[in-house]
Amino acid sequence: MSMVTQATPAATKTARPPQRKRTQLNPKSVLWLFLARVGFLGLLLGGWQLIATYELVDPSVSSSPGAVMAWLAEALTGSKLWINLQATLTASLMAWVLASVVGTFIGIALALLPRVEKVVNPYLSAFNAMPRIALAPLFVVAFGLTINSKIALAFSIVVFMAINAARTGVASLDIDHTRLAEVLGASKVERFFKILLPVAVPSIFGGLRLGLIYALLGTLTAELIGSVDGIGQQLQEAAGLFQTDAIYGLLIVLAITATLINAGMSGIERKILRWQP
Predict the structure, then answer these.
(1) pTM value?
(2) Domain range holding 109?
């Protein structure tokens, strides 16, 4: 019995695997990769310009890189684009935070309560399979053309991703670890915070990183259906006026924004999970 008592403090400490050795990148490889990516972008823009010059595709559909860049230069110096981008990102961030908190809590709770999970799992699967765009008119009727309708639609998408990520993370726990900690005298709270949660965090964070992009997509969908501001509403306006240069310019802005969001979340994930082997 004394051996169990002495081992208890050690058992309750969170095990930290050795940190990974960072691979040193070859400067020549980095330069080659950068030049290859720039060259590929140049090929895409050159091909696009040829299509526009020789009108291989209907000009009302293809536009041209020059016209798009001109629109972007004008839009970036104005205020309309920035106001709409702020509205879209604000709704996306609010929906993501709310869905992440609610979904992670529900997912962990269901994983820890298998009987309850068996009861509600068919209903969760049914709601998750439902096309969210079909709910957009309902959210517009309920909340009007406000930020709340955009948050509701994005939330309905991301919350299920957070639930599934949390359930998957908890399910990856080795049951032998919890049994050993229980034998060594660790309390339920200690087992949760020092064994279960560290194991589940990588899966949870992966789901949250993907959920942020889907929150942006859900917000844009809501704006396309009905909104008074946002990039989606500006896209709808440009499409109604057949302004293809504006449409392509807005798509480029969205692509850059999503890339920066994904890169930022990946950097935060690497920093938080740097203890992983």
Answers:
(1) 0.79
(2) 80-277
